[in-house]
Structure formats: structure tokens, C-alpha cells
Amino acid sequence: MTRPGAPLGGEQGADRDVIVVGAGIGGLYAVHALREHGLRVTAYEAGPDVGGTWYWNRYPGARCDVESLDYQYSFSQDLVDEWTWSERYATQPEILSYINWVAQRLDLRRNIELNTQVLQAVYDEDTALWSVSTDAGETVRSRFLVTAAGSISATMVPDFPGIEDFAGEQYHPGKWPAVGVQLAGKRVGVIGVGSSGVQLIPELADAAEELIVFQRTPAYSIPARNRALGADEIERARRDHRRDAEQARWSHSGINLPITGQRILDEDDAQRLPTLEKAWKLGGNLFLSAYIDTGVDLAANDILADFVRDKINSIVRNPVTAERLTPRSYPIGAKRIVTDTDFFATFNRDHVRLVSLREEPLQRIEAEGIRTEGGFYPVDVLVFATGYDNLTGSLTRMDIRGRGGIGLRESWADGAHTYLGLAVAGFPNLFTITGPQSPSVLVNMFQAVEQHVDWIVSAIVTMRDRELIEIEATPEAEQQWSSQVDEALQYTLYGHADSWYRGANVAGKRRQTLVYCGGLGTYRGICEDIAADGYRGFRLSAQPGLVPESAGTVGGTHRTEEATR
Ligand code: N01
Asked: Which of the listed residues 359, 505, 511, 515 should we mutate to test ligand 1's pocket, taking the one with most ligand atoms within 8 A of CB?
């Protein structure tokens, strides 16, 4: 038997205790935390270096929309003290430097295999081990499989008719070439005005001879108001770090937002305008927290949205273009709010044109450009800022096989089902960091991954100490969690938009609530209660091969801990 404190699985033929998929911010923290507990861990990273999303998103203008002093690891005061951010919103190169520095500072690279893609992971019910195969031709056996493959990492280009005929250069922001792209003298077309497109468009306009933006749905975008950080702000953040981090962990968004408590519906125009102007000048995501009712009440939301619509109208000189850029079909914040630097003003430039695909739908892509119902637009370069198969794509693109050889892709064909966004019935000993149905992208990602990793590591260490080797979510617990996820959505306005939060952006993907909207603090409390309650909703076992139906029967040759209530 495995001794408490000893590596897991050593006597059952496991090469590792844990295999981690991905070395972005989640994978790196997982390697660190698992190793701190004496577990044998290897992370496989498909990219040539660590960083995940921040490695791949090298497009010009790429920045985070969460403030730098919040968007960093919070578990170590030393890391906070030793790294100095330069701007309010860090650029992709600065975030990538930070991630590299953390990897070096914590000596994480010795547990990471770069340029190694996980192709398949198969669960062996007889040994309760995962066999993980990579494109390096290696197969490694591990007790646990922890995915940190990213929530927004599986790039998506729609199947536009004729796309294969395009003869020019084509790019996706999430796979931007490391060497950059030469655009001088070129006609550039960009499809998509989500966060990536909105950040890219002003930069493309600076570099290209001509820029045509193909927009289907206009975006609400708030000026980021980026600026250099002052020494005093950095000093204060370091000094108060422990207190602030603890507060953020239990907050709704994983960020300590200044909550005024004011309701926009309680005020008249004369009262609310100065508040909204102040929030607009402050910029960034903070804009959405100016009032507490705009995220939950449609009438309140419309007042906030109207303010932004007026701003767009005041920035964009051509009234037809301004109207095309004005979002009217969904509440502000119901799709991911975008932050920008000079996005709307870019449409005042003579060489920049906007094509509304609502007015003239895209017919096909041809060798030399894009044909819509309104005409033909020749371009040399096409940028598909069309987004990602978010939240599930990075998992279903791997061949992960659980009980009975059933694939995750197959199991989720009718929609993703998870327990807490952390575990999947039928896939024992698999944990998914920021998986679908967890708060993930709705909250500060650093806080989200730290919460998940801490919970997972604690579960694994508990199993080691109790000499258990298999943990699996029950289908009943999954069903209950799905209902809770759906219910949490009802208290928000997210249900009023066709967004990727609900799987609406990928053709054929089932519409469902893919994010838990109840807030990080509430979610953290739920996860802690479940663990304290003996991992309620999971089956834990000391022997392999217990199929779910037999769980609950303690005795015989198997010892099972049935934690389902
Ligand atoms: O992708 P998106 P993204 N025909 O899905 C359009 C994070 N992020 O890469 O809205 C025509 O948001 C689509 O139109 P519509 C952030 O969480 C953060 O921009 O579906 N158009 C939309 O305009 C973000 O939310 C940062 O009608 C089509 C665009 O393409 C997430 O990543 C920076 C189309 C896709 O927008 C994804 O952002 C970058 C079609 N068939 C990303 N299909 C920061 O931190 C799609 N579109 C700042």
C-alpha cells in the first residue's frame, strides 16, 4: 500500500503521479503546487515555450483587459515584491516576460516538456492510471491527469464558402507569427470585432495601405485609458497584497472593484451623467461597476448602454458608420465587454472602411478578396479575428478516453457536462483547470486558476494520505451542478446575448451555459464545502475498477467511499 506522504502510484506502475496538459498560467501554478507536495509531475506544452495564451497571442496591440496589479499570481508575496509592472494594462510581451520570469524564479522548467503535444489520454480501469501519449512518440502512465489547456485557446475560423480559394496571406490573432507580419503597402481585410479585432484594428490601420473591417455584430467597447503605473501605486499594492488578495479571492470577479452601491434607476439624468462621465474617463472594465443594477436589470442596463451609444456617435464622424458601429441588439456586458485604445476613432481615418455583414452578408471568399451581397472587396491579407471554440475546444480537440474507452468528445457531443467545471463523470482521476461550467473567463484568470489548482492539489493529497487511488464525479452531482449553473445565469443578463459564454459562436455547438455566473467567492465557498463534506458528489475508492453502479457498497474486496449525498 502507498504510505501517507509517499508518492502516489509508485507501486502500481505509474511513471508520474500527475500529468499536466499545458504550461500557461494554470499549468505553471499546477506544477509548482503539486511539486511542493512531493508529487511527481510533468507538464506537456505544445508550444516552444511556456505562456499558453500569452505565448500565442502575439498580434500587434495585444494587451490584457484586467489591470496588471490584479493580473498576476497572488499566492506568493515574494513574486509580488520582486516583479514590477510598467503599465496599467500590460502588453502581451510584458505578460509573457512575467510568466517566463516566474517559470525561472520557481525553477519550473525542469518539470515541463516543451514542443510536446498531448494527442491521447486513455484511462485504464484495471489500474486506475492514465496512459498519456504525445506527439514525441512517448506514452507515460500517471495516476492523475490535470488539464490546463486554456479556456480561450482553440482558435476558430468559420467555414466560410470559398475560404480555401483565397490566394493572399491569412492570419488568426491567436496564432500570430512570432516574426510579425509586413503590411506596408498592402490592402488588409479583418473579419471580427471582438476583443482581438478591436485591439488589432487600430494597429492594422497604422501599418496597412488600406483596411476594410468586416463586422457582423457591433461591440460595446470602453476606452482602456492605459497609462504608466506610478511607483506609489506599485508600493501600495505590495504593502497591502495579503489583505487585497484575500479579499479578491472571495469577491465576485476575483478583482477588488470599487462597488458604489448606487443604482442607476434611483437617479435622474442630471445625477447619473457626472458618474458615468467619471467612469468613462477612468476607463476599462471598471466602467461596468459604476452602478450595481446595470448587470442585472434590463432597464438599468439600457441607460448605461445608451451612454456608450452616444459616445460612439460623438467619436465617429460619419453618421452612417457610427450607426453601424453602435450595438443595439443585446445588453452591454452580456457579451464580453471590450476595452480599446482608439478603436472607434480609427474609423475616422480615410483609408479605413467598415462593411456591415448584417446589411450585406458575406457570400464567399475568393482568390483576391471577399464578396458580399453588396459588392467585392479586394484584399492582399485576411485576418480572421473570428474567435475560439471557447471553454470546451481545447479539451475536445485532444483524444481523452475515460471509462469503457468513451471519448470526452463523444461524451460531450450533446453538451459539456461537468461537476464544478473541475471533473467529469466517466473520467476518473481527471481534473480540468478552469473547465466549462466553472467561473473561468468571467473572473480574473489568475484567481480562477489558483482556486482550482489549490482545490485539486488538496484533493490529490487527501487521497494520498487516505490511501485512495480513484476519484470520480457522479452523474447525479453533474446534473445538480448543471442546474445550479443554469440558475445562476438567470440572475444575470448573460442569457440575453448570443455569446461564446453560451456556445453560440461555433456552428453546431450546443447552446448551454458554459460559465458559472455566481461569482468566484460563492464558487470558492461551494468547492470548500464539498471538500469538507468528504468530497460530496464524488466517489472515492481505494481499489481500481469500481464501476459507478457498484459504488456505495463498502466491503468485499473493495473499499469505496461514497460521498454522494
Ligand atoms: O473572439 P470573439 P476574440 N462571420 O468571439 C466575429 C478574450 N480576449 O478573439 O459577434 C462574421 O469575442 C464575431 O461576430 P459575432 C476575451 O475574453 C481578451 O475577439 O459573432 N463574423 C466577433 O465579432 C474575448 O471575449 C483580450 O456576430 C464572425 C468576432 O468574430 C475572447 O478572448 C484580447 C463570424 C469574434 O469575437 C475572444 O475574443 C483578446 C462569422 N461567421 C481576446 N464568426 C484582452 O484581454 C465570428 N465572427 C483584451
From this structure: 505
324-375 per-position pLDDT tens digit: 999 999 999 999 999 999 999 999 999 999 999 999 999 999 999 999 999 9
Report the alpha-carbon distance of residue 275 to residue 264 in Å, rounded.
10
Ligand 1 geometric centre to CA of 225 (Å): 21
How far apart CA 134 and CA 145 sit, in angstroms, is 13
Ligand 1 pocket member 213 (CB < 6 A): no
Query: Rounded to whole angstroms, how far apart are CA atoms 30 and 13?
Result: 23
Query: Among residues of the chain, what percentage have pLDDT more than 70?
Result: 94
Place of cell 448606487: 262
Burial bucket for residue 167 (CB in 10 Å: 0-12, 13-18, 19+): exposed
Average pLDDT of the chain to the nearest whole number: 94
Burial of 505-539, coded b for 16+ CB within 10 Å and e otherwise, reads bbeebeebbbbbbbbbbebbeebeebbeeebebbb
Query: What values do phi and psi take at 43, rounded to 5?
Result: -110, 135
Q: Ligand 1 pocket, 216 CB below 6 A?
A: yes
Signed CA dihedral, 187, 193, 198, 200: sign only:
negative
pLDDT in tens, 413-448: 999 999 999 999 999 999 999 999 999 999 999 999
C-alpha cell at 333: 456586458
Helix axes 445-465, 241-249, angle to 10 degrees: 80
499 near 217, Cβ under 8 Å? no
pLDDT per residue as tens digits for the range 52-89:
999 999 999 999 999 999 999 999 999 999 999 999 99
Angle, nearest 10°, between helix axes 241-249 and 520-532?
Answer: 80
Torsion angle in degrees (nearest 10) through CA of 43, 44, 49, 52: -80
Inter-residue contact 538 to 470 (CB < 8 Å): no
Q: Which of 408, 562, 413, 417 shows the shortest CA–CA distance to 483?
A: 417
To test ligand 1's pocket by mutation, which of 64, 195, 339, 443 has the most ligand atoms within 8 angstroms of CB? 195
Q: Which residue has the cell 489549490?
A: 454
pLDDT tens, residue by residue, 471-491: 999 999 999 999 999 999 999
Residue 357 CB less than 6 A away from ligand 1 = yes
